[in-house]
Amino acid sequence: MDLFPLLLTIKVSVVATVITVALGIVIALVLARRNFVGKNVVDALIMQPLVIPPTVLGYYLLTLLGRSSGFGRFVEDVLGVQIVFTWKGAVVAACISSLPLFIKPARAAIEGVGREVEDAARLLGKTEQQVLRTITLPLAWRGIMAGTVMAFARATGEFGATLMVAGNIPGLTQTLPVAIYDAVQIGDSGSANLMVAIITLFSFAVLYIAGRFSESKF
Amino acid sequence: MALKFNIKKSFPSFKLDLSLELSTELLVLFGPSGAGKSLTLKMISGLVTPDSGSVEVAGEKVFDSAAGVNVPVRSRRTGYLFQEYALFPHMTVEQNIAYGIGGMRAEGASARVRELLGVMRLSGLEKRYPSELSGGQKQRTALARTLATSPRILLLDEPFSALDFQVREKLRADLLNIHKLYPVTTVVVTHDLEEAFMLSERIAVMNEGRIEQFGSREEVFYRPATRNVARFVGTRNIFTGRVLSVTDSEVVIDSPAVGTVHAARHGSVTVTPGSEVVFCIRPEEIPVIRKDRTLEHRVKDNIVEGEITAITGRGTTHLLYMKTFTGQTALKVELPNHVLRKLDLATGDTVRVSLKRESIWIIG
């Protein structure tokens, strides 16, 4: 079996998860703690990847990040980064798809941290950053971890959007789910079975770990 | 250290406007729920920003809308106690107490924590998590946590109302003890009259965002300034009547409820014959005249006759509901249980009670 798809999948998932968590915590905090006009719209937009067909999502990303759009040209010409049909495209697809899966439990966990508990810390002389670091995040930790695990799993299994944005270039952008599709298409059931087994085992482990995290201690 | 404030805040259906000046004392802010008591504490502490006004803590202006001053919550050094404790669930008792002074590893923290554990009767519980504490222990931990930071003022928002009766009694005593030990300006919010009485000599009665009366507990209790205050402190007999005559010491009032009564005159209201007045009498201030006792001719005793329509137990006392013959009004009379037993009264009996002239208070 060619190990490239597995290694690429791990690389893409790890990078995507790091970005998703960093971005997701900020978004989850804003959604949980701030009220602003259009909050529902923002919320609905972020949750889109959960309901929209992955190919549609991929199409949007392809259009936005490709050379045909101003933004795509800007990223490529000015920043010198090519996203479409590279592994970075797979990262972007994985990020966007996994973001809602991270935000949902993270936001719920942050909202679950009582307002008064945070106020108590402020009254004891703590700055907003200190409150966040010593109270809010530690108390929301389980939800954030559960979200991280879910986001990682989603990134690993991303197929549709990845295919659209990163393509299916063996040895370059072919991730495990895409490789499974290819193996089935050419009738290589040996490789397909092995890869399917890996993904299945992995998914089960992820859900088990996520379940352990969501058990509350306090 | 003193506290001085004058704050205004408007909501679509609620307006708060009050000002107070306190020295190093313990003041009770008493009133029904929805009066704006908690909101007042939140504005003093900075958790809620007033629309306008100023707050001065220990001589420092921490809020002044005119000068654009609004010191952040963290810099005000306000001790605050929440009704639901707001302990940090992921920290032990000692970590909670040390939180505001830089944690257990900070210099001097462990000595300070040990001292407060002792004062608050928490020794032995330092390694427990809040979920392993009783309600009373939680609130004592919260109090220790806030005292650790040496606050300049102490604000307590219905601190004992989530606790059961005996724990509450004990914690009130603790609080008075703490106030003696660490004398800082303390404001306790409560809707519990008994608590208000036990904690403070002076009570500010709040209603609908304003202070209706600010005075000693005797004043508030026996000489309510408004009809609402009379209601809140349990003066269950509040009537309106017309003034018939006024002398230096006495006002004669004719009321549909209890007929013509003679009331002692006090300086704080001006009454003129013909004007309408509100007057009240506390139910426990009304003696029942024994059935076998013949009435001497003493008009000033304001004898009122009526029929008992109901008797309800209230723990150590009973409340008689008496329909007066003059006004068909329910006059409420509260009697200690042993008195009721001796008088041998039952629903349907006719009784005579005396509204003593000194017990009648003319609200105005």
Label this structure with key terms.
heterodimer; A: 218 residues; mainly alpha; MetI-like fold; 78% helix; globular; B: 364 residues; alpha+beta; Rossmann fold; OB fold (Dihydrolipoamide Acetyltransferase, E2P); 2 domains; 6-stranded mixed beta sheet; 5-stranded antiparallel beta sheet
Description:
The complex is a heterodimer of chains A (218) and B (364). Chain A is built from 10 helices and no strands. Chain A is mainly α. The radius of gyration of chain A is 19 Å and the shape is globular. Helices cover 78% and strands 0% of the residues of chain A. Chain B has 2 domains: 226 residues, P-loop containing nucleotide triphosphate hydrolases (Rossmann fold), CATH 3.40.50; 128 residues, OB fold (Dihydrolipoamide Acetyltransferase, E2P). Helices cover 23% and strands 35% of the residues of chain B. Chain B is built from 9 helices and 21 strands. Chain B has a 6-stranded mixed β-sheet with strand order 7-8-9-3-10-11, with helices on both faces. A 5-stranded antiparallel β-sheet of chain B has the order 2-1-4-5-6, covered by helices on one side. The interface between A and B is medium-sized, with 17 and 26 residues.
Largest sheet of chain A: none
Structural class of chain B: alpha+beta
What is the typical, i.e. mean, pLDDT of chain A?
A: 92
Order of helices and strands of chain A: HHHHHHHHHH
Number of strands of chain A: 0
Tally of individual domains of chain B: 2
Residues in helices of chain A, as a percent range: over 70%
End-to-end CA span of chain B: 37 Å
CATH architecture of the largest domain in chain B: 3-Layer(aba) Sandwich
Taken as a percent bin, the fraction of beta residues of chain A is under 5%
Provide the low-confidence segments of chain A as ranges. none
Briefly, what CATH class of the largest domain in chain B?
A: Alpha Beta
Spans where pLDDT lies below 50 across 5 or more residues of chain B: none
The CATH topology label of chain A is MetI-like fold
**Mean pLDDT, all residues of chain B:** 91
